[in-house]
């Protein structure tokens, strides 16, 4: 049995929101943090501390941590590995405790992205100074991102990681930025990196070649086989730049049920797969992207059988044609769809309709003044989202109106 563990670091609120043509409102990002916390995910990369339209949202979510609403999940910020970004981040988000510092390491990007402004040595120097600055600002845990690590010469990558470790970094993030690795190449590279550095490794893989879950798991196996903890980066429903990132639910299913991982590697015991159905549906609604019919675990056809042989076998014993149970993912309960009159909240809602919506959810207000204050926030949330609010969002606003107000406030 391997002694090290696999943890999940979800990056939907940082990388997922960079999906071209799509995005999330700050309330939606907050709800995803709540759902990820309920699901037992170790860490959410919740945004960009140097991006000013994120400031109120980031500080409000850290307040949710302080109040115990986000009870165990870590919230980490992403920034470039520069002293300037670190200083700005701590000026805007002073209570930030976890962060990832990113810089390109491949010859391709050093030559053709930096265009002579940096070479291999200055890349390391810049990263080291940023790590030291972050630690002096109060960072509790620092990850260092090697962007385009899969196209970086391994000898330089090892030297880069050792320099990060010496400067005070806790983890190295191996970024397969273009989905260039396959399960075999990433295993060899990560195992050598782990053995040489004995530094925990994050696997940040992309799906440009359709292998993102396989490469993520192969990398995690290599890290553990090399003697260190593994942190797999995921996004809900595989959202992300270009072809996307590793789907959260698919990764969990693969670790829990594939022949090479089940019972052989330690998985973060807090992960609760029964929340999968809820978070996948919410992300689909928030991004306005349907869940593919054949999506593992949460797709409409994931547990559907039509051919005679399959239907007969599944009815005799589900294990004939189902590797895991739909109940494990929080599926199986009927869903009620309203087909009659509906009163919904919107940016022009009045108090009567608003009260009707909340009464159906059995949410009571102390008086009309409290109800009107929440109504005003609900109106602003509808303006921000430009689509109807779901029950979880409405309940969140009513329960934490002061936090909701911060999340909905923009200061250009």
Characterise this structure:
The protein contains 15 helices and 9 strands. The protein has an 8-stranded parallel β-barrel, surrounded by 6 helices. Helix content is 43%, strand content 12%. With 412 residues, it is of the alpha/beta class. The mean pLDDT is 95.
The overall average pLDDT, rounded, is 95
Q: What's the helix count?
A: 15
Helix content: 40-55%
Question: What is the rounded Rg?
Answer: 23 Å
CATH architecture of the largest domain: Alpha-Beta Barrel
What is the CATH homologous superfamily assignment of the largest domain?
A: Aldolase class I
Adjacency order of strands in the biggest sheet:
1-2-3-4-5-6-7-8
